[in-house]
Amino acid sequence: MAAAAARINFFLNPINPLNSKATTHLRTRLHFQPSRRRPRATSFCTRASATPLHDEAAASDPFVLTTPLYYVNAPPHLGSAYTTIAADAIARFHRLLGKKVIFITGTDEHGEKIATAAAASASTPAQHCDIISQSYISLWKNLDIAYDKFIRTTDPKHEAIVKEFYSRVLANGDIYRADYEGLYCINCEEYKDEKELLDNNCCSTHLKPCVARKEDNYFFALSKYQKSLEETLAKNPNFVQPSFRLNEVQSWIRGGLRDFSISRALVDWGIPVPNDSKQTIYVWFDALLGYISALSEDTEQPDLERAVSSGWPASLHLIGKDILRFHAVYWPAMLMSAGLGLPKMVFGHGFLTKDGMKMGKSLGNTIEPNDLVHKFGSDAVRYFFLREVEFGNDGDYSEDRFINIVNAHLANSIGNLLNRTLGLLKKNCQSTLVVDSSIAAEGITFKDTVEKLVEKARVQYGNLSLSSACEAVLEISNAGNLYMDERAPWSLFKQGGAASEAAAKDLVIILEAMRIIAVALSPVTPSLSWRIYGQLGYSKERFDAVTWVSP
Q1: What is the SS3 assignment for 67?
Q2: Count of H helices and E strands in the chain?
Q3: Rg, the chain, Cα only
Q4: In the 8-state DSSP scheme, what is residue 316?
Q5: Is residue 473 part of a domain?
Q6: What CATH number corresponds to the domain at position 447?
Q7: What's the burial of 363, exposed, middle or buried (CB within 10 Å: 0-12/13-18/19+)?
Q8: Could you tell me the residue range of the domain that residue 428 belongs to?
Q9: What pLDDT sits at residue 9?
């Protein structure tokens, strides 16, 4: 492991940061101006406005985004890490815009699979949930995930809000009791239509045979909302993204919606049905409410309306494509029944493969995300998956490609530009910037190039095109390296006089571009970006206060 890790180059050499005089001069930037709202912050001042992710409501409305609540039948895997890394990058970008962000993640802890997994490890379901939930929290810390709310569906406040929501839907006449007989996938915890199954009644997702079951359940009247869902998607095609996922959802709805069971008579580990303690609430009907219960403060008495008033509806649900039906069909119908607003967007991303093959324990090719982080560092893991996977599509992991991409982009392009510029500054200017960056950049084409690429990155982040945003920031570094090679300041310093002064200005310009790169890449590589900022002589407080706002 150590030998493989050594193949990742160091991003930054241990060069002393700029002195205080340099820091003072860096406060005036190529094209950045002090933020009026936060005078101590640095703000991106771009020349054109981007199309927003959504039509933004009042400035005071928070940007609320969620990952799925991850099922705790097993420790976190690479797929759940990928979703959460992407959500964290989006959350960090919106914080840079100066928005109040509520980033929700958590764990889904009820259901048959949980009880089975607990029994297999000779523990109680509650003990099992505590252990696995903590493993998610630990991984998120290792990956620099800055979430605001972590909800567990075994939390008493969540149970109270689920029961209140259930009672509201019941009062609306959308819950009824009936017998149900069908083929049940234990891994999906869902009844399946035969037309969805493979040979031998195998689930198309888990490739295991479904079992025949018959039980007395409570049902949600999903079919009642078919027309409403069709109208919602027609009026708001951005509700489901990417657009090809919308086509899938519309196809499901056109095929006719069937009422679905929202209770289980054979599952003890769950929230009891309010009007029938012999049954528990179906795990999906339970877990989806976590997006709302997470908004409830721990110090408050759990209350559905109070939780809703704290940030609902969500701006963005970020999910894997395998749970799209629950979020884009079942969930909005449930919300309609309860009289609550719908989330603004459901974004279903693709799956990850390894070396072109589906990952699985039986194939022996699974990737433990903690191992990746310990081997290569959180920034390298975050950057590779957000840069190399076109967000929304399937993506592939190869260790050789991982190492090549990280070295080429973060070490050889960005790291090398910073290291050689600081090296020249230390050797020729005693690590002191002798001219203001705005003066140094006057009439320089490189400045215009950086401004255009900053705006490009901002637009791409806003459109959830995370790979393209990374590419735009990398282009700033590539342009900086080209500028350095063309100007050859090392030769100018040797000439002395006016040539030496010109070389010093070149270093100021490049280091300002490095500061811009650090901020623009911070949603993706927060630790690396801070290290760059620190090398430039800034305090952690200044870095944490930076914003990216339009004029």
Answers
A1: strand
A2: 24, 19
A3: 26
A4: E
A5: yes
A6: 1.10.730.10
A7: exposed
A8: 412-545
A9: 57
Does residue 508 fall inside a structural domain? yes
Percent of the chain with pLDDT over 90: 74
Is 35 within the bounds of a domain? no
CA distances from 528 to 13, 150, 403 (A): 12, 25, 16
Q: Is residue 533 part of a domain?
A: yes
Q: Is the peptide bond before 52 cis (omega within 30 degrees of 0)?
A: no
Band of the pLDDT at 59, cuts 50, 70, 90? low
Cα–Cα distance for residue pair 102/158, rounded to 1 Å: 17
When divided into structural domains, the chain yields a total of: 1
Strands (E), 265-401: 272-273, 276-281, 316-320, 346-349, 352-354, 357-358, 395-397
d(CA 222, CA 230): 13
Q: What is the DSSP string of 381-418?
A: HHHHHHHHS-BTB-EEE-HHHHHHHHIIIIIIIIIHHH
Q: How confident is the model at residue 197 (pLDDT cuts 50, 70, 90)?
A: confident
Break the chain down into helix, strand, coil percent, rounded to 5. Answer: 50, 15, 30
| All residues at 6 or more sequence positions from 55 whose CB lies less than 8 Å from its CB, including other chains | none
Listing from the earlier edge strand, what are the strands of the sheet with 63-71? Answer: 149-152, 101-108, 63-71, 316-320, 346-349, 240-241
* Dist CA 295 CA 496 (whole Å): 62
Query: Nearest CA to 13 among 419, 344, 367, 301?
Result: 419
DSSP bridge pairs for 202: 209
Q: Could you give phi then psi for residue 146, rounded to 5 degrees?
A: -100, 70
Cβ neighbours of residue 199 closer than 8 Å, sequence gap 6 or more: none
Could you tell me the pTM of the whole model?
0.88
Sequence-distant (6+) residues with CB within 8 A of 71 are 107, 108, 111, 113, 114
Distance in angstroms (rounded) separating the CA atoms of residues 280 and 358: 34
Amino acid at 189: E
Q: Which residue has the tokens 């705790």?
A: 72
